[in-house]
Design goal:
Layout (H helix, E strand, L loop, with lengths): L2 H31 L9 E10 L3 H11 L3 E2 L3 E3 L4 E7 L4 E7 L5 H8 L4 E9 L2 H10 L10 E2 L5 E5 L9 E5 L1
Parallel strand pairs: 1-5, 6-9
Antiparallel strand pairs: 1-6, 2-4, 3-4, 4-5, 7-8, 8-9
Length: about 170
């Protein structure tokens, strides 16, 4: 057998030994985790990152005309006090937020951040009501008493940023 062939076989054997060790480690850690009670709800995928923008048309143009992304039409959500535009990224979305009405939460954000910036992240959950109940028990503040219908037509809640390391977190029913 040529030297190159021996090296390839040796490399394959090393990878197989490493894989076997990893499988044994995962199998043993699985048996330990069986004693931990599972949650009644699960976090899902990152749905979107929301960005507050002072000029919605300019922001739409950046993502559509300059970066070549697929950009939705503007949708007004009066119950949330925002205009929204979604930018499709393949594995997730950006949500562009612009104030709608005098009591918009985005207005105060933009007063502190004149050029805009990241406003919140949105993570999907498989059971928003179970998530709310458990998070309340864990003393995580929820910014509404009940879920509201969000931009995707699904129930959403927001978690207080002071309880989430300075990040406003939106949970959305998957």
């Amino acid at each position: 057998m040529a030297a190159g062939g021996r090296r390839a076989v040796a490399g394959l054997l090393t990878r197989l030994r490493t894989s076997a060790l990893m499988i044994r480690t995962l199998a043993s850690s699985h048996s330990v985790s069986q004693n931990i009670p599972s949650s009644l709800w699960k976090l899902g995928r990152l749905n979107h990152v929301a960005i507050a923008v002072p000029d919605l048309e300019k922001a739409q143009s950046l993502y559509k005309d300059v970066l070549g992304a697929q950009v939705s039409k503007t949708v007004a959500l009066p119950e949330h006090g925002v205009y929204t535009v979604f930018v499709e990224l393949g594995n997730t979305k950006l949500e562009l937020l612009h104030p709608l009405g005098e009591k918009s939460p985005i207005t105060s954000f933009l007063q502190k951040n004149k050029t805009g910036g990241m406003h919140h992240i949105c993570i999907e959950v498989d059971d928003i009501n179970a998530a709310m109940a458990e998070l309340k028990k864990k003393k995580i503040r929820i910014l509404s008493e009940e879920p509201k219908i969000g931009a995707h037509g699904k129930p959403v809640i927001f978690l207080h940023p002071k309880d989430c390391h300075g990040v406003l977190v939106e949970l959305e029913q998957a």
